[in-house]
Every structure is written in structure tokens, then in C-alpha cells.
Write a sequence for this structure.
């Protein structure tokens, strides 16, 4: 079968037993380094993807994909906004809400976001009902002044089901004894756990009618929350809906509300990619060493090939092909090992915990137990391409040095 000369010689050099076993050892070490580097990079990126996905799901379980609110005042025509949203096929659900920063007082005092909802429509825009540890959303009745607290918030306030908390909001009323803030006593009827501290410690839920009275909104609301079929188009869809409405509205989406958080995760993921890529870079440096020694060992062969008419470019191709094949085998091995390790990481972590009697992620410290992973084909492809590019770059100097071999000088002492 016909094969290019450089490819045939490169394959022959790989299969042939070398006289210098140290060169073979360095080549094997560089290949093993590439395997370890690619495996580690795939595993680390998959774990970071898993954490990002887990946190995103928990956050989006408590917040809507987008919201439409009034520019400077309450949203009085919220029912029309809900109707327009429901008429759009891109929208899964829409529900009004009213929220304000408040100070809650029980056994202790703690600031929180006080949010008024309609319990019968909350399921359209969030998973709050599924996060309940005690009580249910149905216990929020208009005029009953009941409240549902996050788990950490309830612990901080020192209250439980059946206790009372007093809510102070920055709405002031004039009385014979002066200006006083709006306050109301609520009965704790439920506790939820979202798994995200911002909500478990900073969110309290009441009925929308009670919120309107406490916040002096009349029949208005703060805005309308939306849940969409495609959350990645949240701002686009919300902006389109707002443009159909007669007045000016403010539009926000989940990515803007948590922009700093997801930006920090993306930066951390990028930095981890660069840091762990150094393992592959070290393996590629070993590949340079092995190829340089191989070129030195094959000086006579190169000289004979040059004497027979092989051009310098073809000589370069021989060693580029050899280095690329070594790197390719290492990359394929690393990809396979990385995918297998990622898919079985929970079992590996459990084995480590059992062997050394340690708890790597204790439940009383971390909101997320276990090691979530998300293996993505595009990440694996990017890692393989970057590793292969490093391997190709590592072959440039040894191949260039081989191409500059002087046949007369190389054969002088042969």
C-alpha cells in the first residue's frame, strides 16, 4: 500500500526497538504525562461544569428566568402584562410579585427580601413548592398574614413553625406621635431550603395581598415574573414582550441578576483550564527532550537519507509525524481515562472516603453533597485540540534540528 515516505519512516521509527533505552523511557514518560494531563483537565473541567450546573439549577429554582417591572413606580396593569405573556408561545408561565427589603424580628433581628406571591401561580415561575421542608404554599392566605422563611433565616431569627416574626419595611406613615415605619406581625407557617445561601438566609415569602397592604402598593405589584421554554433567550423574550405593552417597563433576566456570580465561575473555570494545561505543557517539554535525543541517535540514518536525496522538509516531516503520533496516542488515552474517571467519580470519591475515613464534602458545611459532574463534548474536544497543538509545537525544534543535519559531518566517524 502506498504511503508518503515521511509517514512510512516515522511509523518505522516508532515500531523499531531503540538501541538507547533511555530515549524510549523518556518517550513513554512524555506519553504518560500527556495521558495524565488530558485526564486531569477533563475531570477538573467536568467537575466545575457540574458545580456550575447544580448552582444554576438551584438558583433558577427560586427565581424566574426574567421579570418585567415598572420604571419608577408599581406596576398597576400587571394583569394585562400576564395576559400578554401567556399569549406568547415562548413563555411557560407568568406570575405577579411584590417585594421590598425588610427587617425581620423574632428572637433575633435580620434583614431579608420580603416577597409577596400568589401561591396558586407560583409554580408557573419557580420550584418553591418543591423546596419546602415544613408547611406548604397553600397556607399563605390573603389577610391571614402568614409567612414562609428560608431555613437559615429561621435559624438566625430563632423561630419555628407556629412562632411569630415582625416585619418592618421602609414605608413610613404619619401618626400623632410622629413618623413611624410600616410594620406587621406574621405567623410562621412554613420553612424552605433552596440550597443557596442568598435565599435560605435572605428571603421570606408572604401572600401578594398582604404584601400590597404592607408595602402600600394598592392594587399594584412590583412586577411580573416569567418562566420560558429557552432560558438562554430570557432577556430577548422579555424585551420583546415589553415592547408590545403601552408604557415603559424595566426588563431583567436571570443572567443579569446573577451576572457577577456566573462571571466569577467562568473566570475560575478559565484559570483552572490554564493551570491544569501546564501538566500537558510539561509532558510536551518531555516530548521535545525525547525527540532531540532521538535525532542525535539517528544522525547516521538522517545523513544516509539526505545523501540518497531526501529533502530537508521531508526529514522534518519524519520527526513531526513521530512526535504527533506519540502525542495522539497519549491524547486518546487521556480522553478515554478522563471520560471513565468523570463518569465514575462518585464511586472513586466514596472509595477514598471509606479508605481514609474522611468526609470530603460534609453536609453540615457544604450545600452540595457529593461531586456533581457534567461531561460536555465541546470541552473534551477543546482539550484534545489544545493538547494536540502543544504536541505539534513540541516537534518543531527537534524536526528543524534534524533537517539541518550535515551528512558529511554525521558520517565522518561512522
Amino acid at each position: 500500500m502506498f504511503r508518503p515516505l515521511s509517514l512510512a519512516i516515522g511509523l518505522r521509527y516508532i515500531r523499531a526497538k531503540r538501541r538507547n533505552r533511555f530515549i524510549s523511557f523518556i518517550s513513554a514518560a512524555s506519553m504518560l504525562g500527556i495521558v495524565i494531563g488530558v485526564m486531569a483537565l477533563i475531570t477538573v473541567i467536568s467537575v466545575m461544569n457540574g458545580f456550575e450546573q447544580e448552582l444554576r439549577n438551584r438558583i433558577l429554582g427560586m427565581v424566574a428566568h426574567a421579570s418585567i417591572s415598572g420604571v419608577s413606580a408599581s406596576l398597576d396593569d400587571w394583569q394585562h402584562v400576564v395576559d400578554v405573556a401567556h399569549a406568547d408561545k415562548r413563555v411557560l408561565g407568568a406570575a405577579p410579585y411584590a417585594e421590598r427589603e425588610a427587617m425581620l424580628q423574632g428572637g433575633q433581628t435580620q434583614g431579608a427580601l420580603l416577597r409577596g406571591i400568589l401561591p396558586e401561580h407560583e409554580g408557573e415561575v419557580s420550584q418553591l413548592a418543591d423546596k419546602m421542608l415544613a408547611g406548604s404554599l397553600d397556607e399563605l392566605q390573603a389577610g391571614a398574614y402568614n409567612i414562609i422563611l428560608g431555613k437559615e433565616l429561621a435559624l438566625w431569627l430563632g423561630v419555628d413553625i407556629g412562632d411569630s416574626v415582625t416585619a418592618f419595611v421602609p414605608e413610613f406613615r404619619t401618626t400623632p406621635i410622629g413618623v413611624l415605619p410600616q410594620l406587621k406581625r406574621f405567623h410562621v407557617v412554613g420553612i424552605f431550603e433552596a440550597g443557596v445561601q442568598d435565599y435560605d438566609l435572605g428571603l421570606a415569602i408572604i401572600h401578594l395581598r398582604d404584601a400590597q397592604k404592607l408595602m402600600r402598593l394598592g392594587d399594584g405589584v412590583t412586577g411580573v415574573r416569567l418562566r420560558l421554554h429557552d432560558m438562554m433567550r430570557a432577556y430577548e423574550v422579555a424585551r420583546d414582550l415589553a415592547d408590545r405593552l403601552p408604557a415603559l417597563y424595566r426588563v431583567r433576566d436571570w443572567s443579569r441578576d446573577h451576572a457577577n456570580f456566573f462571571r466569577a465561575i467562568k473566570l475560575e473555570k478559565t484559570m483552572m483550564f490554564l493551570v491544569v494545561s501546564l501538566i500537558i505543557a510539561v509532558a510536551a517539554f518531555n516530548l521535545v527532550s525525547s525527540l532531540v535525543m532521538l535525532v542525535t541517535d539517528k544522525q547516521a540514518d538522517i545523513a544516509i537519507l539526505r545523501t540518497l536525496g531526501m529533502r530537508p522538509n521531508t526529514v522534518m516531516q519524519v520527526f513531526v509525524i513521530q512526535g504527533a503520533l506519540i502525542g495522539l496516542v497519549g491524547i486518546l488515552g487521556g480522553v478515554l481515562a478522563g471520560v471513565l474517571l468523570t463518569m465514575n467519580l462518585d464511586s472513586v470519591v466514596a472509595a477514598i472516603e471509606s479508605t481514609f475515613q474522611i468526609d470530603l464534602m460534609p453536609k453540615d458545611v457544604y450545600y452540595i453533597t457529593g461531586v456533581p459532574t457534567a461531561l460536555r463534548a465541546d470541552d473534551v474536544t477543546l482539550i484534545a485540540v489544545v493538547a494536540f497543538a502543544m504536541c505539534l509545537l513540541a516537534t518543531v525544534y527537534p524536526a528543524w534540528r534534524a533537517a539541518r543535519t550535515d551528512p558529511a559531518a554525521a558520517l565522518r566517524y561512522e
The chain has two domains: 5-58+261-411, 72-247. The chain is about 55% helix and 20% strand. Residues 34 and 330 are 5 Å apart (CA to CA).
